[in-house]
Amino acid sequence: MPRNRRHFRITLPVQAQPLRTLSLRTSFAPLLAGFICVFLGTYDNTALAVVLPTIADDLGLDLQIAQWTNLAPMIMSAALLLVMGNLADRIGHRRVLYAGLATYFVSALLAALSNGFAMLLLARFLTGIALASCYTVGPAFTIRSFVPGRRARALSVVGITTSIGLVSGPVLGGYLGETFGWRTLFWAPLAILVLVMAVIWLGPRLRLFERLWETPQRLERKFDYRGASLMLFWQGPLLLAITLGNDRGWLSPEILAAAALGTVVLYFFVRVQLNAAHPTLDFRLFKLRDFRLPVLAAALGFTVVIINFLLLPFYMSLVLGMSAFAIGIVAAISPAMMSFMAPLGALWAERASPRHPASAGLALLVVGTVLMLLLLRTDSSVWLLVGLLALTGIGLGTFEWTINSSIVGSLPRSMLGTSAGILATARTFGFSLGQSVWGLVFTLAVTSRSGGTVALEAPPEDLMFGLRACFAIGAVVALLAFALAFAQRDNPPPATEADILALRPPGRGER
Predict the structure, then answer these.
(1) SS3 for 14?
(2) Rounded percentage of the chain residues whose pLDDT exceeds 70
C-alpha cells in the first residue's frame, strides 16, 4: 500500500470490532454530517423567531397562535430526544441520520408551500421529529470523527457550529424574511441540505473521501416501545404546561390538564422503566456518580443562561431604549464568545480534565451574574453590558462542551446516541424550565413593586427590580451548578455495559 504523506493516521481498536483508521478521508463525511445536523437545529430555532410577527400578519393569526410554529418543533423534539438516541444505538446512527434528514426535507418543503396555518403546523411538528434525530446523531457523528482522547475537541466543534447557527439564524432570518418573505426561511436550509447530501453521496464515488461509515458498535437489545411511547406522552404535556404557564396562567384549565396528564403518564413511565430489561431512560445510570454530577450541573447551568437570552433584550429595549438592530448586535456577543472559547476549553480539557474548564466556566457564569446584579442600572453604558455579556459568553463557551464531554465520557462508546440524547434533553429542559421560572419571577417581582401594573408597561426602576430578582436567584443556582461540576473526578474511566447491568436490583430478569 503506498504511503500517504498527507494524513496522520491513527488506528483505533474498538473492542471486538474491526480496526478502523481515522484520517481526513475517513472522518470528512461524518464530520460534515455532524455539522449539517447541528447547524440545521440551531438555525431553525433562531431564524424563525425573527419573522413570527410577519407570519402572524400574513396568515391572519394572533401572535400567541403564531408562536406555535416555534413551540411545535421544540416540544416534539424534546419529547423524542432520548427515544432517537436510544434507537440510534440499536439500529445504527447512519440510518437515523438519513431518516431524520429526509423528514427535515419533507417538513421544510411542506412549510415553504403551506397556504394556511394547519399545513404549516403539521410541517413544524414533522420538523420536531427531524430535529430530535439531528440533535442526537449530529454530536455522535462529530465525536466519531476524532479519536477518543480528543472527545472534548470534537464537542468543541459542535459548540462552534452551534454558535454559528445562533449568530447567523437571526441575521439570515431577518434579511430573508424582510427581503423575500418568510417562506424563504424554509427554502434556504433545503438548498444547504441538498448540497451537503450531494457532497456526502458524490465524494466517495469520486474517491475524494470514504463513505459515511456505520456505528462500529450497536447495542444488541430490544427497543423499548412502551417506554418510548410513554416518554412522548409525559414530556409533551409537561413541556407544554411549563412553556405556556406564564402566558395562559398557571391555574388555567388547559395548563392544569396538561400538567396533570403529564404527571400521571410520568408515574407509569417510571414504573415501566424500572421494570424494563433495556429501558429507554435507564434510571440506573444516575447511580453512577461520574454521570449524575455533570448531568445535573449542565441542567442547572442551562437554566441560568436563559436569563440573558430571555430578559436582557427587554432590558435593552424598555430600559436603555436601544433599537432592534442594536439589540441584535449586542445579543450576538455571547454566542460569538462561546464560539471563540469552545476550542480553548477543549484543549484545556484534553491536557488536564473536563472538570477543570467546566468548573472555571461555571465560576465565570457566577461572577458574571453577580456583576449584572450589582452593576446594571437604568442608565448603564452599553459597553458595560457588552463586557458582561462577553464574560458570561466566555464562561458558557468554556463550560458547556466540556461538561458535555464528561457526560459522554462517563458511558460506554456503544451508548453514544443515548448519551447525546441525555445531554440534549438536559439542555432543552434547562432552557424550557428557565424560561418559565425566570418569566414568573420577573413578572411577580415587577407587579408587586409597581402595584399590579402589567410587567412590560411598568417604569424602568420596577423593571430593574424584577431583573435583579432573577439575577440574585440565578447566581445561587449557578453556584450550585459550580459545586456539582467541581465535585467530579478527574478523567474517570467510562462505565462498561457490565457495570450498568450490575446496577440492576437482584432478581430482575429480562423482559
Answers:
(1) strand
(2) 87
d(CA 32, CA 28): 6
Q: Does CATH number 1.10.510.10 belong to domain 289-494?
A: no
**Pairwise CA distance, residues 85 & 285, whole Å:** 15
Its pTM stands at 0.76
What DSSP character marks residue 505? P
Under a CB-based contact definition with an 8 Å cutoff, are residues 508 and 283 in contact?
no
- Give the integer Cα–Cα distance in Å for 142 and 125: 26
Number of CB atoms found within 10 A of residue 27's CB: 22
Q: What CATH number should be reported for the domain whose range is 19-215? A: 1.20.1250.20
Residues 6+ apart with CB under 8 A from 486: 355, 359
Q: Which three cell numbers stand for residue 480?
A: 450550585
Q: Quickly list DSSP for 165-213.
A: HHHHHHHHHHHHHHHH-TTHHHHHHHHHHHHHHHHHHHHHHTTSS---P
Rounded to a whole number, what is the largest CA-CA distance in the chain? Answer: 80
* Helix, strand, coil shares, percent, the chain, to 5: 80, 0, 20
pLDDT at 281 over 50: yes
